[in-house]
Amino acid sequence: MNFSFKEIVTATMVLFAVIDIVGSIPIIIDLRNKVGHIQSEKASIVSAVIMIAFLFIGESLLTLIGIDVNSFAVAGSFVLFFLALEMILGVRLYRDDAPETASVVPLAFPLIAGAGSMTTILSLKAEFDTINIVIAILLNVIFVYGVLKSSRKLEKMFGKGGLAVIRKVFGIVLMAIAIKLFASNIQGLLHLD
Predict the structure, then answer these.
(1) Model pTM score
(2) Cα separation of 133 and 164, whole Å?
(3) CA 20 to chain centre
(4) What is the pLDDT of residues 67-89, one digit of tens each?
(5) Closest CA to 123 of 66, 190, 186, 172
(6) Range of the domain at 125
(7) I want to staple 102 with a disulfide (CB 3.0 to 4.6 A). Which of 31, 144, 155, 191 is the partner?
(8) pLDDT over threshold 90, residue 154
(9) Which ranges constitute the DSSP H helices of 36-150?
């Protein structure tokens, strides 16, 4: 077990950018207005369980279907790159249907622990130690819980302009990480040393 503060910070920032809970505040507020109550605790716990479980069994699932981690990490770098483009340019390349209720299903999955998070977790596993990724997941879930609990206050505090700036900054960080992830895993994929 190689505990690394640098890896924890990097993995936390990457997951924070991908989960994009700050950018999801308008969706969360819309859900709250439709159903009246958001199950913050339940959504946070379930999303943590989904992400940590995928961290441990995701690689086995890939092996089962004949895909190595380098291939998945390169594919993941493309997903992160396009997510970053969405954040920076303010466009939607892919859009999920709007959730109907504020239960575990739309919040924990796919809003928090969605396809982008899963791809990112396995891509990070190709680079970082598992313990550091688990800590990063837990830190993000704590933050997600805080955002879910105080989404209305945050919207008033930052305003739409402030949320847009935060989203763009994390988009640029995410794009840089996607490029680094691609560069470090393409060598293993093409067996270049």
Answers:
(1) 0.77
(2) 27
(3) 7
(4) 887 887 788 788 888 878 888 88
(5) 186
(6) 5-190
(7) 31
(8) no
(9) 40-64, 69-89, 104-106, 115-125, 130-149
